């Protein structure tokens, strides 16, 4: 039996799965405003309806521009087997014209498997509310990196006129957590890019934020990447900045990895065999020059000008 167009309407409890922030925007405000005798800005035009996918425009305020193709295909396969478990949410902008509020992955996945109709809740929302809902839904994705979250928080504060306390309530975070993310945007662009690309962790970044001098931030950041520093090591280096000069702190490190690799390459070329070098924080270590035959040993000894 073809289950492509099968739909399952969730009960009210399941709708909370949208997340505390988005769920509050789409549902809680209806009941609160009704109890206060106010018209809800998110009032539902109809409980649910089937809409032709070709009548639905993407959300122009959608902050998310790229979708993981493999994950999208997995969702499409799930919809093919189970149908749409959670309807999308749209607003009507004209006759047979709708604009997506939430559920872009579900809409794209449905199109992938050739669905022509999709279940949707139709609600009213102005442009600012559209932006707010799109940003909050984006934040609630599990695979967002720290910089993406920070940028979304910043947009919610600046473009939706939310205070940090209000934002925290929307996304289910306390003010300190929200502030820690936003502070990441004060880091130099090169460090933000590394955090975005998972070259360093948020723990590394939070330690670097406490350094006022951007040049010192970048110098320590380079050490983190080149020498695979732990968060604890970064925190120790930052603490030492208060009692020692920047130069002293930065000297108390191992040789940069690129220097070791360069030296290994030069020695390997010189001896004609793969040379390995290890060094610790006190610049103690060893150089290994392997050989597999008497001929290779003689060549090494010749380079060293060794005579028995």
From TrEMBL:
Residues 49-139 form the ParB-like N-terminal domain. It holds the Pfam family HTH_ParB. Keywords: Chromosome partition, DNA-binding. Gene3D superfamilies: 1.10.10.2830, 3.90.1530.30. It comes from the Bacteria. SMART domains: ParB (SM00470). PANTHER family: CHROMOSOME-PARTITIONING PROTEIN PARB-RELATED. Belongs to the ParB family. This is ParB/RepB/Spo0J family partition protein. It comes from Nibrella viscosa.
